[in-house]
Amino acid sequence: MSPTARRWAVSIAALSVLLVLYSCSGPSAPQPGTPAFLWNAAKESWAAGEYADTADRLDDLLAKDEGEYAPRALPWALVATSGLADGYMEAADAYQKGVKANKGGAEALRREMVRYHDAATRLILRFADKFESLNKLKLEAVPLAFPFPKGSAAEVPTLATISTGRMPPAALVESALRMELDRAMILAAARAAGCPDDAAKAAALVGAANATAPRDAFQLAMARELFTMAEMFSRDKLNDLEKRAILCDRAEKALQGLPESDGSRELTDRITAAKKGMGKKS
C-alpha cells in the first residue's frame, strides 16, 4: 500500500471510530413499550389522522405512567376517544334515518348502522371509564398537548345522502366515515378548547405552544359529552335505558364542584329532564 493510501485508510478508520463514539454518546431513542415511546407513537398516529391508533397508544401509556406524561396524555385521550365516539354516533344516526326512509333497501343500511352503533358503544363506555381518572389530576389548567386535527368541520354530504335512504358505493361509505371522524375530532378539540362553535378560533388556541384550557371549562365540556353519549341509548335509538341512566349519572357527577354558570345550569336541567323521562313508559 502506498503512503497516500495508508494515510487515507488511517483517516477513514479514525472517522469511523469518532462516528461510533458520537452515536453512543448521543441521546438514545425511547425503547418500545416505554411511556416515551408510546407518547411519540401517539403523536405520529395523530399527525397521520389515525385517531383510533392514537387513542390506543395513549391508553397503553396511561396504564404505565401516572406522573410525567399523564397530565398531558389523559386530556388528549379524552378528546380522541370522545371524537371517535361522536363520529360513529353521527354516522349511525345517518344510517338509522336512511333505514326509516327506505324500507325496501333497508338491509344494507341497517348493517352499517349496527356496525357503527357497536363501535360507538365501545368507545362511549371507554370514555366514561377514562373520565373518572380526571379527578386524579389536580390541575387548574388542562394541557391540550396535541396539534389541532386536520380536515373540515363541515357536514359530510355523503351522510346526508345516506339519511335519505340511498346507499352509496362501498368506496364512498368508507370515505364518508373517514371524513366524519375527521369532522368529529375537530369538534371535540374545539369543545375541549372552550370554542364549540368556532373551529377556527379553537385551531389557533390548540395550535399554540403550551396550550391549556381552564379546568372548570374542560370538565363542563366533558360532562356535556357524557350527556350527549347518553342520548344514543334513548328509546328511539338503542333503547338501553340502563346505560343511559349510568351516563346521565356520571354527567351529573362531573358537574359537582364546578362553579355555577349558565352552562352548568342548562346541562343540569337537561339531565334532570332526561332522568324523569326515563321513568315514564313510552
Characterization of this structure:
The protein is mostly helical. It has a domain of about 190 residues. About 70% of the residues lie in helices and about 0% in strands. It has a two-stranded antiparallel sheet. The chain is globular and about 60 Å long. The N terminus is likely disordered.
Question: What would the keywords be for this entry?
Answer:
282 residues, mainly alpha, two-stranded antiparallel ribbon, 11 helices, 2 strands, 69% helix, 2% strand, disordered N terminus
Compute the separation of the termini in Å. Answer: 97 Å
The largest sheet is: 2 strands, antiparallel
* Strand residue percentage: under 5%
Strand arrangement, major sheet? 1-2
Large-scale geometry: globular
Average residue-wise pLDDT:
89
Total beta strand runs? 2
The low-pLDDT segments are: 3-26
Reading the helices and strands in chain order gives HHHHHEHHHEHHH
Output the number of helix runs. Answer: 11
User: Radius of gyration, rounded?
Assistant: 24 Å
Helix content: 55-70%
Structural class category: mainly alpha
Topology diagram in text:
Blueprint: H1 3-25, H2 35-47, H3 51-64, H4 70-101, H5 106-131, E1 141-143, H6 157-163, H7 170-192, H8 199-206, E2 212-214, H9 215-230, H10 241-255, H11 262-278
Antiparallel strand pairs: 1-2
